[in-house]
Amino acid sequence: MCGRTACALGADRIRRACMYRDNHGRTRQPEWRDADKYSPSYNKSPQSNSPVLVSRRHFEKDADSSERVIAAMRWGLVPAWFREADPSKMQYKTSNCRSDTMMEKLSYKGPLIKGRRCVVLADGFYEWQQHNGKKQPYFIYFPQPKQEMADGKDDDEEWKGWRLLTMAGIFDCWEPPDGGDALYTYTIITVDASKGLSDIHNRMPAILDGDEAIRKWLDFTEVSTQEALRLIHSTENIAFHPVSTIVNNSRNNTPECLVPIGLGPKTETKVSTSSKMMLDWVKNKSPKKEEDDLPRWSSQFIQITAPKRTSAGLMHQWLKKEEGDPCAKKPKTQ
């Protein structure tokens, strides 16, 4: 399952991290829709708005279906057929949908048949391991390339930075029966956990690993539902580390949620003194940096070689080198 995520990049840097090549081989950055509805967060829960990739064709009928946009959508799918005036009155949870039953349930089958497939973007997600009556949280993410951040121009094709996790999702558009703005919502597809994650939880998000999988999932006019569903499976290309129980409360929204901790009978569940100092530095650094001064970020969508598995220490480097990012300020609580 997936009940909490982290997405701490600012809107502009999410665009940079999502660079891709279109059908003509041109490097593109997807445009935003409703970027003002998105707030970076180290601890996102259902009902909050998150960035998702979708085909531009969903919003512009004459657009190339291979072109991508980033939309801020609410987590927890509200089906188009829901007739209550208040979508919060839904009697069942739709933050996740099981891959083995989604074609049997109208809430998910309908949008899938319409091609409403999306890619949910996040730094990673949290999962809780139950042991002896206690729950230990873990942060789960893509293995990161062994590379250092470097400055570059806006049109650089190989920026360096944290690789976003790309999860397969389904979205729908609900319109209030009495009129008003349409509400776009999504659900994350889940599958049986991979062998590496099965000791933590028996379910995991369906992760799309690489741009070809992302392209096929999004391009609903060229790739049929049946073909796209072949992309839905577990993956072993994943890394994780235990984190502090501070993440258990969704109101806690600080970089400390992501920091690796040690486990063991003699180890308290808290970050080290050095990590505390680093976190204080991250939280207190100046938010007045101009966008052009920001470190550049890499894009998994135009990688040439597969990323190498690295230690959780990269999380420290990632947080430390986020100087000047909009999310460096304490993000708004969702």
Automatic annotation (TrEMBL):
Residues 26-37 have a biased composition (Basic and acidic residues). GO terms for biological process: double-strand break repair via alternative nonhomologous end joining; interstrand cross-link repair; positive regulation of isotype switching; protein-DNA covalent cross-linking repair; proteolysis; somatic hypermutation of immunoglobulin genes. Residues 40-52 have a biased composition (Polar residues). Residues 26-54 are annotated as: Disordered. Coiled coil: none annotated. Keywords: Covalent protein-DNA linkage, DNA damage, DNA-binding, Hydrolase, Lyase, Protease. Its EC number is 3.4.-.-. GO terms for molecular function: DNA-(abasic site) binding; peptidase activity; protein-DNA covalent cross-linking activity; single-stranded DNA binding. InterPro entries: SRAP, SRAP-like. GO terms for cellular component: replication fork. It holds the Pfam family SRAP. Sensor of abasic sites in single-stranded DNA (ssDNA) required to preserve genome integrity by promoting error-free repair of abasic sites. Acts as an enzyme that recognizes and binds abasic sites in ssDNA at replication forks and chemically modifies the lesion by forming a covalent cross-link with DNA: forms a stable thiazolidine linkage between a ring-opened abasic site and the alpha-amino and sulfhydryl substituents of its N-terminal catalytic cysteine residue. The HMCES DNA-protein cross-link is then either reversed or degraded. Belongs to the SOS response-associated peptidase family. This is Abasic site processing protein HMCES. It comes from Chrysemys picta bellii. The gene is HMCES.
